[in-house]
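SEQUENCE-TO-STRUCTURE ENTRY
===========================
What this section holds: a protein sequence and its matching fold, both as plain text.
Question of interest: how does this chain fold, as expressed in backbone structure tokens?
***
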Amino acid sequence: MIITDNHMHVYRHLKLEAIEQFKQAGGTHVLLVSLLAHHYDVNPKTGKDFVKVFEEHISMVRKANRIVKAYAVLGVHPAEITILGPRYGFERAAEIMKEALDIAGEYVAKGEAIAIKSGRPHYRVDSHVWRLSNDVMRHAFEIAKEVGCAVQLHTESYNREMGMEIAKIADEVGLRREKVVKHFSPPKVREFEEIGIFPSVIAGNENVLAAAREGSRFVVETDYIDDPKRPGAVLGPKTVPKKVKELLRHGFDEDFIYKICKENIEKLYGVELEG
């Protein structure tokens, strides 16, 4: 049975042991997402400085592939704008982020990553920084359309209004709504289907079961961050396998799990999952 975690980080705590734990719990496939530049001891002055971030991340993904099937998602976290902005000015920070996203798109085009990550801050910023952040996100959509990949989005907490706003930006760019994957989604599967963007449901509490009761148009994630200062955050690496298997006890069959963990992943990212 294929069980896929759609959004996990491997950093400086358990590292590959987290992937071992995921496998031991029944996990088979994982999308590993790059972190902020400072996690890789990079202080970017240009977008090209993110090459070190992306190369280090891809190296870790290759090692994870010895344990399970792992895929790279290369991102420019939206919080970079409030890290880089005070140093270089917010307009320049946005340009650096766009340059880095261009490079991430090149890795996708080469087949070394399957998606990019972007978004906008999940915390309050002033209107100028908000406008620039939306411009960066729009640029990510343009890249995704060009190279034919999905975008995982880190944003403020989901509500229908923001979902519609993001969907309309995708429309303006010409990116299919279903290629916009809302990371850290609530289990509002029917609402996401109405809007058209795709939910990556955070697997805490009873979210996976609640999502399943609304349909099969979703994927699941832990957002495990592997931070030694927050060892279990956001959710532990065993969570997705555990929660997905619980669906069987609630009357959902393996065909349903096949849909959310294999078919949906394949459709979103243009990959073929074996197992």
